[in-house]
Design brief:
Length: 312
């Protein structure tokens, strides 16, 4: 059983799709974040395929082997939701489970809100759902999202190095328990150098795979989506997710320290908008829990899939 690759023409772009397995029990769509591509779900795709599901992992538009939009500066969240719908339609999939992390969780939640009849359930790794907009005003100027939202600054920072060094540094920083913040006079990519060791679960071969795929499109669109598109999500009139949702929360994920995230998860705010919610905590889990602890995450995903039938 091997992962197969193809392209689909969706909304005027050729989107790269990785697939494995047969849909005996249903289909699972995996949605990556930054600085990831389909490859970040490699462990989970094989596991769910062996469990009887079809696994699909696209590269978002502008990422990996998918086409770059002609106007990346106009990146919009609704484009990602439309791409998801187009993929399901092109593959004649009436209903699917969505597994997402990082910014991929936003279109997954939006899709479940707008198309509940096409969604079996949502699994999010590290990103809770709440309709209110988050604020980063309390974080210092060197906070990485503030830096990357500044047009031209990240481009100049990243442009000093090749794609491999950029991805390496971001993986190292995002694997830590602390929010990446650069001191005055330094840029984000200066926070680690080539001598800083990779996380033990992330190999040089993994890094080379990511780097080779970022060499195709670079970082032009990824800086727009998600960073410069944050706060531009479109509103849904009744933001209550009716499908089952599993939140897998790594307690050493730096995002857990973002303003408001702890309260959304721990104080029941997410539960108000997601009545059928299950939360599982991974005490040592970081931002890349699905790569850090693949067996544990695979078990959690498959248990959720088995507990919620496609036609339920």
């Amino acid at each position: 059983m091997e992962i197969e690759h193809s392209h689909l023409s969706i909304n005027g772009l050729n989107l790269h799709i990785a697939q494995i397995g047969k849909d005996e029990l249903g289909t699972v769509v995996f949605l990556h974040g930054f600085p990831e591509i389909w490859y970040s779900w490699r462990h989970q795709m094989i596991a769910v395929a062996k469990a009887g599901y079809k696994a699909i992992a696209p590269d978002w538009r502008g990422y990996g082997l998918s086409d770059q939009p002609q106007d990346p500066e106009n990146a919009a969240w609704e484009d990602l939701v439309s791409d998801m719908l187009g993929i399901l339609d092109a593959l004649s999939i009436s209903k699917a489970f969505l597994v997402a992390k990082d910014f991929g969780a936003f279109p997954a939640y939006q899709f479940a809100l707008i198309y509940p009849d096409r969604t079996c359930g949502v699994i999010s790794i590290g990103i809770p759902f709440a309709p209110m907009r988050g604020s980063y005003d309390s974080l210092p100027e060197g906070f990485y999202i503030k830096r990357w939202r500044e047009i031209g600054r990240a481009e100049a920072d990243f442009g000093r190095f090749d794609a491999k060094r950029v991805v390496r540094t971001i993986y190292i920083l995002f694997s830590k328990n602390e929010i990446p913040i650069a001191p005055e006079g330094k840029e984000i990519i200066d926070l680690a150098d080539s001598s800083t060791p990779l996380p033990e679960w992330f190999t040089e071969e993994d890094l080379s795979t990511y780097a080779s795929l970022y060499e195709k499109n670079g970082f032009t669109y990824p800086l727009q989506m998600p960073y410069r598109a944050l706060g531009k999500q479109y509103d849904v009139p009744d933001p209550k997710i009716q499908v089952p949702v599993l939140l897998i929360q790594g307690e050493k994920d730096y995002v857990f320290k973002f303003p408001g995230i702890y309260e959304i998860i721990k104080e029941g705010i997410m539960q108000k908008y997601v009545p059928n919610l299950e939360i599982t905590y991974m005490p040592e889990g970081n931002h890349f829990a699905q790569e850090q602890f693949p067996d544990q995450v695979n078990q959690l995903i498959i248990r959720f899939l088995k507990g919620h039938h496609v036609n339920a």
